[in-house]
Amino acid sequence: MKQISILGCGWLGLPLAKKLIEKGNSINGSTTSESKLSILENAGINPFLVIVESENVSEKITDFLAESEILIIDIPPKLRTVSSESNKIFIQKIENLIPFIEKSSVSKVLFVSSTSVYGDENEFITEETTPNPETQSGKQLVLAEAILQKNQNFETTILRFGGLIGEDRHPVKFLAGKENLENPDAPINLIHQNDCISIIEEIINQSKWNEVFNAAAPFHPSREQYYTQKAKEQNLVLPKFSSENSNIKKTISSEKIENILNYNFNLEDY
Fold it and tell me: How wide is the angle at C-alpha 169 spanned by C-alphas 168 and 175, nearest 5°?
């Protein structure tokens, strides 16, 4: 049994915590909402109200990290902010966490990142590809990754997920009925919630630390082909794509995760 702290029990963190508990682990889970504490507790999670801000971190952080060997950080940057100041705020949050991690029993950190750290100019992307983010959130993540990786007090593995999908979350619901959508020929780079959870489990079980992994299913039909088919399956209004602005060919390779972890994606979920 391992003692694991999950910072951010949201869309991914909560079902991840439940799965890890099923496997016999003890989980400390955090939320920023007092009303969600009972949800965590009812799931068998040790619940903590932890608010990480640019100026400080709530006092509960010490208890949240206490006796844990592994910390999973799953607090994405704010996607709606575009200023450089908001960029700095997220980095300050990560920097504020560091002293608490250093003083705790945590020796392994898993940071949930995104393949948005890569630019669109690349066609075939592996973990050796130099990040060149074009979005503010991608820029924030690259800096946060570096802060954690360079710290010698704990081992950090970076897990860069592709576009997140699940039973309750699919981009086709937002694209249905829309017109003049760009990049019809761009390959999709998606990962299902189930694969996200299973990959994290494997990293922990196999002790794959001080690594960087890209995680997107090895399934890359074009945006037009995939979302048209998904709209048909769900009886949604078909999205319409424009043939203009079709210059993105970015494909995320999952070969490292398949080879190093001996992991097989469940393509039926896609």
Answer: 130
Largest CA distance in the chain: 55
Considering the domain boundaries, does residue 245 fall inside one? no
Q: Is residue 175 part of a domain?
A: no
Least confident piece of the model among 38-52, 69-83, 248-262: 69-83
Per the structure, how many domains does the chain have? 1
Query: What CA–CA distance (Å, rounded) separates 122 from 93?
Result: 30
Amino acid 18: pLDDT: 98
- 18 is in which domain, residue-wise? 3-166+191-218+251-269
Please tell me the distance from the alpha carbon of residue 27 to that of residue 1, in angstroms, as a whole number. 10
φ, ψ for residue 82, nearest 5 deg: -125, -5
How is residue 55 written in tokens?
């100026």
CA distance 186 to 266: 22
Cα distance from N-terminal residue to C-terminal residue, the chain: 32
pLDDT band at 56 (very low <50, low <70, confident <90, very high): confident
How far apart are the C-alpha atoms of 179 and 104, rounded to whole Å? 52
Starting at the edge strand that comes first in sequence, how are the strands of the sheet with 26-31 ordered?
46-49, 26-31, 3-7, 70-73, 108-114, 155-161, 212-215
At 163, the amino acid letter reads G
Does the pTM surpass 0.70? The reply is yes
Contact call for residues 42 and 101 (beta carbons, < 8 A): no
Q: Is residue 241 part of a domain?
A: no
pLDDT band at 43 (very low <50, low <70, confident <90, very high): very high
Question: Whose structure tokens read 């820029």?
Answer: 139
Burial of 152 (0-12, 13-18, 19+ CB in 10 A): exposed
In this structure, is residue 174 part of a structural domain?
Answer: no
* Cα separation, 90 vs 143, whole angstroms: 9
Q: How many CA atoms lie within 13 Å of 141's alpha carbon, on the beta-carbon side?
A: 27
